[in-house]
Design goal:
The chain contains 14 helices and three strands. The chain folds into two domains: about 80 residues, Tyrosine recombinase, N-terminal domain (DNA polymerase, domain 1); about 160 residues, Orthogonal Bundle (hpI Integrase, Chain A), CATH 1.10.443.10. It is about 55% helix and about 5% strand. A hairpin with an 8-residue loop joins strand 2 and strand 3. The radius of gyration is 22 Å and the shape is globular. By secondary structure, the chain is mostly helical.
Length: about 280
């Protein structure tokens, strides 16, 4: 099968299996990396050694991170098991140990300083929505006006990660801000739109956030996604049941949400050291 034919078949099967657009791009990217490796190495027959050498090459020579290695493995697995339907003596479900790295969390005061420092109404509405609802940046840019239900005080997150929908709360304070924003900017389809009516750019949101973080002189290494981490951590600190937080974040496994039980600095401060009882 020619390379172009293989890629076309691969792409169509991803569509049929209802993979997200983002996942399709990642899988195709890693497929091309693998095909380039096979071609440049002049490999004719792919076997277990070929795959071991390839993934070792990604790890050792390309310095792939844990997440990139997982993506590469999933992409090649899809190629052999779903596209080629070829049996090969290789464990495509190999378990890789995830590095024990903890995300940085913003305090409620830091979040407040960030939001209050944003002068532009649209920008403030976007950042406030991401924090208030615990959204991924992709979920924020894909929000439509019809997803906001002010009567039920909820926002529907459609086709989130894993192609799942979920419902999050709409705070009264956020609703007031969104109404002010809506009155001034009058979006037509997407809740947050660019100048030509298209959905707002994720890159622009990242730039807004980074500029504001520098403006208020926060030294932590944080990103827009830190707002989502902070949302979860602040809810946990206020006593919200972790299973509710799991549903609000759209986590498939509770273990993913449980990371916030380890990183909440405010909760740690409340624990009395046994040394104090001496």
């Amino acid at each position: 099968m020619k390379r172009s034919e293989l890629i076309d078949k691969y792409s169509k099967l991803l569509h049929l299996k209802n993979y997200s657009t983002r996942t399709e791009k990642l899988y195709l990217h890693h497929l091309n990396l693998f095909l380039d490796y096979v071609s440049s190495s002049k490999i004719v027959n792919i076997n277990e050694k070929t795959l071991l050498d390839y993934f070792d090459h990604l790890k050792q020579n390309k310095n792939f991170s844990y997440s990139s290695m997982k993506q590469a493995l999933a992409s090649v697995r899809f190629l052999f098991l779903d596209v080629l339907k070829k049996e090969i003596d290789f464990d495509f479900f190999i378990k890789m140990k995830k590095p024990n790295s903890l995300p940085n969390i913003l305090t409620t005061e830091e979040v407040k300083n960030i939001i209050n420092s944003i002068v532009n109404l649209k920008h403030r509405a976007i950042i406030s929505t991401i924090y208030s609802c615990g959204l991924r940046i992709s979920e924020a840019v894909n929000l439509k006006i019809s997803d906001v239900d002010s009567s039920a005080m909820t926002i529907k997150i459609v086709n989130a990660k894993g192609k799942n929908d979920r419902i999050v709360m709409l705070s009264k304070k956020l609703l007031k801000l969104l109404r002010e924003y809506f009155k001034e900017y009058k979006p037509k389809t997407y809740l947050f739109e660019g100048q030509s009516g298209e959905k707002y750019s994720a890159r622009s949101i990242q730039q807004i956030f980074n500029n504001t973080v520098n403006k208020v002189r926060i030294k932590k290494k944080v990103t827009v996604h830190s707002l989502r981490h902070s949302f979860a951590s602040h809810l946990l600190d206020s006593g919200t049941d972790i299973r509710f937080i799991q549903e609000l974040l759209g986590h498939k496994h509770l273990s993913t949400t449980q990371i916030y039980t380890h990183i909440n600095p405010t909760s740690v401060k409340k624990i009395k050291s046994p040394f104090d009882s001496f």
